[in-house]
Amino acid sequence: MSTSSERIPGGAFGKGSAASNSDHESSDNEAPRRLRDSKKNKKAQKNHIPPEIKQKASKYSRGHDSEATPVKARSKKAQAKLDHAKKRRDEAILEAARSEVLLTEQAGYLEADKMERTYKFTQKQLAEHVDISSANKIFDLHLEDFGPYMLDYTSNGKQLLIGGRKGHLATMDWRNGKLGCEIHLRETIRDVCWLHNQNMFAVAQKQYAYIYDHTGAEVHCLQKHKEPTRLGFLPYHFLLASTGMTGRLVYQDITEGKVIGEHKPGYGPAHVLQVNPFNAVVHMGHGNGVVTLWSPQQSTPLAKILCHKGPVQAMAIDHTGTYMATSGLDGRVKIWDIRNFKAMHEYTTLKPAHSLDISQRGLLAAGWGPNMTIWKDALSTNVTDPYMKRQLPGSTISDVQFVPYDDVLGYGHSLGISSIVVPGAGEPNFDAFVANPFQTRKQRQEAEVKMLLDKLAPDTIQLDPNFIGKLDPRNHLQRHHDKLQDTRSQYDQNKAEGKYKDSNVKNKTKGRNSTAKRYNRKRQSNVMDLKKLQDIEKLERELREKEAKRRKIPQEQQGALSKFYMEKH
Questions:
Q1: pTM for the complete prediction?
Q2: For 505-515, how does the pLDDT look when each residue is reduced to its tens digit (9 = 90+)?
Q3: Cis link prior to 148 (omega < 30° from 0)?
Q4: What is the rounded CA–CA span in Å between residue 402 and residue 277?
């Protein structure tokens, strides 16, 4: 024992204890450091965005890029709110991109062998190779006594509304075969249209437009819509638009009952009307081949397009608001790019197409006479062969419509209504917050309340829907100065082109000092018109001439008698 105590003196024990204390201290300091590093790593992993997610997030962004044009506020509180809103918007875009993993459904199309053609496949052959639920969607309802029929589907594709020309009206859950309501109005029906949900719908009857509920009871008689021929509903603005034999376009708010706008294009009776789902602009087709674009708050059309040499028969717009298809009495179906209002390509039918529709996946359907033709990729490219064909001998097709979120096409004709399967027509993945095909009663009630709270004002309808929220950074003086500069430059350009040679403004001095004249002069002191610009130019010319006369002649140019006269300039 003594030897061991000598080998390990007391100092050695002290050193050992110090080493152990230092180890404990280092371990105590290492733990918070590891915790901080782990938090940093978790934060870095959370903030790390894979490149494939970034690529997917680009298609979910809305409006202009906020990083390219950052908005700066004067106060810190406002800047913090802007930063928080931007952060939430970016997070929503990333979450939408990440949720694509859950979208497992994919769209499929008909594929034929080398010697076969897809338009030769019949519905009987398709029914043998699809599942039972899809095969049950192929049906015909024979209603020969009250046709031809117009039809409309709800936004989620669950309910079907049909209206016969001779007064037959019915709603149904077409997938389950359940009849909602059925009435006979004993009056001419020209068009039918669902409103914001399946509880209310509008009908264009002989004299006025009427609104009914899901039980078939009449709710309103819209007397401002006289002799309507076509109806259109704006779901985000709760506006019902109609045109008819009077040639007028009428907007009415269905929540308040007020008439928001009433326009008269001046082209006679109109039978074609479509609502652009992208910007809520109403497209009207007229008898002279012109298509006009309207907004409820503007008395003049936003644009005019000469589409056909004869009357416009039908029109369809895709859900992105990029392409428009029109058919005329000349038997042509033209595809238009609405962004630059130019015709891309056209197709020919043996008879004028009286109904057009574009599916969510870009299929174009045209009903002409007893025939119906469907083209695939017909909007972006000029295809030669159709995708599918259908013929109903002894009838005339009056209306065609694709079912949202389903590969089904419904069409009305003089013998009733029919439904066929069109592979690849509908969007396979739906957004339950936009349109839910499996919506319950409670979800429908909540969605209706939310739609009313998010209702948009009519003045937000423009060709460019991204104009909302844009701010002009210039102050009032800068805007006024820029306006004067533009007016002056425009005047100089017109004068250089010789547009003002024969337009001499006369000076009318009679009664110029009356009270009304003085008030108008004072009120229009900042208005730049032709006379004012000519007066300004005349005054500047006189000042230049006067200054030239006052200018002194240099000494080397003066003569001996220069003090007795002044040279003329």
A1: 0.69
A2: 455 555 666 77
A3: yes
A4: 15
